[in-house]
C-alpha cells in the first residue's frame, strides 16, 4: 500500500557495462551448475513494457505519497507486449532449465508470454483470471476480470456466474490484509525448498509472505540467491550475487552467453471446435482454452458463412438447419477482443474423418506484422479439461494462509477512491 512507500524513493543504481558483463558470467555459471532453478519476479520486469512499478522514483506509491500525478500515461496491461525478461523466462522454461516461476505481479504478462499454468505461482493473483466460489473452476479472460466493488474493496465478486455449476465468480487479486491462496503459496514454498538457485528479478523483496520464497533459498548454504534490482533490498546480504540494474539488460546478456534465443512474442490462442447432433439437428460449438483446458475468453463474436446470425455470447454455439456431411467445409469468422489490434480471422474448418466431432486449432498472431497463422492440431491433443466435466467436489473451495501482511495493495483494482494504473506488486 502507499503508506509502506517512503516519501523519497530509494536510490536507483546501475552497474557499469563491464561489471554487468562480469556478473552475468557468474550467473551463467550458477545456471549451468544448478539442477532446480526458480525465478522470483516483481514489478521491475514489466516497467520496460510501459507498466509502472510501485516504489521507484515514478512508482505508483511514490507518486501518491508525494501527492504528484503521473506525467506520462501508463500502458494498459492488456496491450503491453511482454518484455525481453518475460520471453527469456519462457525459453528457459521450454528447455526445462527453469523449473518454476513465483511472481508478485498480477498483470497477466507471465501467462500471456507463455509460462505454463503448472509452472507458476501468481501469489497476488492475476487480473485476467477469475474462479468459481463453489466448484473452483478457473476462467482466463482477455479482459480485466476484477471485482465490481458492490460491497467494498474485499468484495471479490465479478458479477459473472460459473458456466459449469452456476456459482458466483470471484477475482483472484489479493489485497493487503487478505490471505494468500493456500495452493500457489504452498507450491512456491515447495519449489523454494528444492531450489539450488533462485533468481529474484525486479522485486523490492519487502512484502511477506512472498518475500519468504527467495529468503528460504538465500538461507541455505548449498543454494544461491541472485538478486537483480535497481534499488537495495532487505535480502541483499543473503544473496550470493547482487546485481544493480535493469532485468532486461541482465537477461539479454545471460541468454546470449547461454547461446539461447529470446523468442519473439506471439499472441497464441487455442480454439476447440465441437460438432454435435441431437435428433438429427447439428450444432457447432466454438471455445477458447488454455494449454491445460482452462476456458479462455478471447472472442467477441463468431459468425458462420451463409448464416445471418452472429453469436456474441459464450458459449459460441451455432445451430445448423441442414444435416452436416463428412467433407463439409465450415467457414467461420472470428472476432477478437483486439487488444493487440487483431483483425477478424476467417477460419475454414473441414468436417472430416480425422476429427469429425472435435478439432483443435492453434491461432498465432504477430502484433508487429499484423498477421494471423492458423494450424490444425492433432485432436488427441485437445486439453482434457476442455472435454471432461470438472469434479466440483474434488476441487472444493481454496483455503487461505494467514499472514501478518499479505497480498496486493488495495490500489490494484480501481475503486471510487483510487485510480490504479498498475496490476502488480513491486
Automatic annotation (TrEMBL):
The protein's Enzyme Commission number: 2.3.1.286
Active-site residue list: 124 (proton acceptor)
Biased composition (Polar residues): 416-426
EC top class named in words: transferase
Compositionally skewed regions (Basic and acidic residues) per UniProt: 392-402
InterPro entries hit by this protein: DHS-like_NAD/FAD-binding_dom, NAD-dep_sirtuin_deacylases, Sirtuin, Ssirtuin_cat_dom
Annotated keywords: Metal-binding, NAD, Transferase, Zinc
Keyword check for Metal-binding: yes
Region (Disordered) residue spans: 375-426
Entries under Pfam families matching the protein: SIR2 (PF02146)
The keyword Transferase belongs to this UniProt entry's keyword annotation: yes
Residue stretches making up the Deacetylase sirtuin-type domain: 17-261
Gene3D superfamilies given in the database record: 2.20.28.200, TPP-binding domain (3.40.50.1220)
Annotated positions binding Zn(2+): 132, 135, 162, 165
Family the entry assigns: Belongs to the sirtuin family. Class I subfamily.
Identification of the protein by name: protein acetyllysine N-acetyltransferase
